[in-house]
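Hi everyone,

Forwarding the result from last night's run.
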Amino acid sequence: MTEIRQIPSAEAAKAIAADANAVLVDVRTTAEWAYVGVPALPNLHRISWQSFPTGAVDPDFVAKVKQAGIATDQPVFLICRSGARSQAAAMALAEAGYTDLTNVSDGFEGTLDPAKHRGTVNGWKQAGLPWVQS
């Protein structure tokens, strides 16, 4: 099976910017995109790994990635809130034959701090990377 690289958001942003063929797949839910924000990148694809509010894994996730025109040999970076769902989604893509996969290990909001808040320890937003909120 394909190795899934693990890199933090700041390193992922640099790698995506350096490769015009690379894409970032945000696997969070529609609610997270609307209320928390999304990375501000031209090569961003929003394809939920799980549905909201049930949390059920989308059985058509891989098909939706293919429908988005993302090739199996294309550099694919995946991001979620903290790196867990994006890892699961990357594993599904690896099983489907995708060969160049990277999980954004600290996610969009990062890990919990001692007060159980996100966005203060690490993650896309905390690193000051470009993002937008609707």
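The chain has one domain: 4-132.

Cheers,
N.
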